């Protein structure tokens, strides 16, 4: 029901309220074709196994992510995918160099996913999987809500993640693969403190994942 309501509300908003380009404010689309072409962004340096495509401080990247996550504007995700395709081969090389076996989304709590109508990390992970030819596998579930991390202080985010909110969906998958240490790429939309990703990584490593690397749309 919640998924249907979200999509219904979004369709009404799209019909009633015109879109304005978040960069130049021209009416017509969330990011006009000229601004997509002119948008110059810097890819964050890869450090600590983290691969990102945008800085979160970039107002265009941040505006698109906010429109997608909080206003359920699918056109924002379509724009992001269009831009990602320009640089996707750098990520594919990253996957090959690190011999990644599985792409694993960091899941939302089920109630939040129902409210939103989608799980953005799963959408991103599926896109990377389809583009790079590396399987996407749901290995984790979030068994308790941690609230909106964007509204918490850095210290509160780290404290919240100390009591790990994730569990392995199918422990037998790892047990049945004794001696095989999988290399995993954890996927989420935004990396700020890294607390969420590190909590998910701890759970995966406890289930015998050999290496865990990270991908986020934006970092900072």
Describe the structure concisely:
The protein is α/β, with parallel strands linked by helices and 220 residues long. The chain has a single domain, classed as Rossmann fold (3-Layer(aba) Sandwich). 47% of the residues lie in helices and 15% in strands.
Structural commentary:
The protein has 220 residues and is an alpha/beta fold. It has one domain (42-219): Rossmann fold (3-Layer(aba) Sandwich), CATH 3.40.50. Helices cover 47% and strands 15% of the residues. The protein is built from nine helices and six strands, in the order H-H-E-H-H-E-H-H-E-H-E-H-E-H-E. A four-stranded parallel β-sheet has the order 1-6-5-2, with helices on both faces. Helix 4 (74-97) crosses helix 6 (120-132) and helix 7 runs parallel beside helix 9 (195-206). It is globular. The two termini are 35 Å apart. The mean pLDDT is 85.
Topology diagram in text:
Elements: H1 2-16, H2 33-38, E1 50-55, H3 59-71, H4 74-97, E2 102-105, H5 110-116, H6 120-132, E3 140-142, H7 154-162, E4 166-168, H8 171-175, E5 183-191, H9 195-206, E6 211-219
Helix pairs in contact: 3-4, 4-6, 7-9
Q: Stretches where pLDDT falls below 50 for ≥5 residues?
A: none
| Number of helical elements | 9
Nearest-integer average pLDDT: 85
Q: What is the class in the CATH system? A: Alpha Beta
Compressed to H and E, one letter per element, the order equals: HHEHHEHHEHEHEHE
Strand pairing plus helix content: what structural class? alpha/beta
């Amino acid at each position: 029901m919640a998924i249907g309501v979200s999509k219904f509300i979004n369709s009404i908003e799209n019909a009633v309220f015109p879109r304005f380009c978040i960069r130049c404010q021209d009416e017509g689309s969330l990011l006009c074709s000229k601004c997509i072409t002119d948008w110059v962004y810097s890819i964050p340096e890869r450090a600590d196994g983290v691969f990102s495509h945008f800085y979160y401080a970039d107002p265009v990247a941040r505006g698109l992510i906010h429109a997608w996550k909080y206003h359920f504007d699918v056109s924002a995700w379509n724009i992001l995918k269009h831009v990602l395709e320009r640089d996707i081969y750098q990520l594919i090389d990253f996957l090959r160099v690190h011999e990644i076996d599985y792409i694993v989304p960091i899941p939302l709590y089920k109630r939040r996913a129902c409210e939103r109508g989608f799980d953005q990390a799963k959408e991103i992970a599926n896109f990377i999987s389809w583009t790079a030819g590396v399987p996407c596998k749901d290995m984790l579930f979030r068994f308790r809500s941690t609230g909106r991390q964007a509204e918490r202080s850095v210290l509160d985010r780290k404290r919240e993640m100390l009591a790990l909110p994730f569990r392995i969906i199918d422990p037998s998958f790892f047990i049945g693969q004794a001696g095989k240490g999988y290399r995993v790429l954890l996927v989420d939309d935004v990396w700020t403190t890294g607390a969420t990703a590190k909590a998910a990584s701890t759970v995966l490593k406890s289930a015998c994942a050999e290496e865990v690397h990270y991908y986020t749309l934006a970092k900072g």
